[in-house]
Amino acid sequence: MSLHIERIGQGEPLVMIHGWGMHSGMWMHTRDLLSQHFELHLVDLPGMGYSENLDVYSLHNVAELIADKMPSNAYVLGWSLGGLIAIKVALITPIKKLILVASTPCFVARDDWQQGMPSDVFESFFAGAMQDYQGTMNKLLALIAMGSGNARATSKILREALSLRPAPHQQALLGALDILRTGDLRADLLSMQTPTLLIHGAHDKLASLSSAEWMAQTLPNGQLLTLPSAAHEPFISHPELFSQKVKEFLQL
Question: pTM for this one?
Answer without folding.
Answer: 0.97
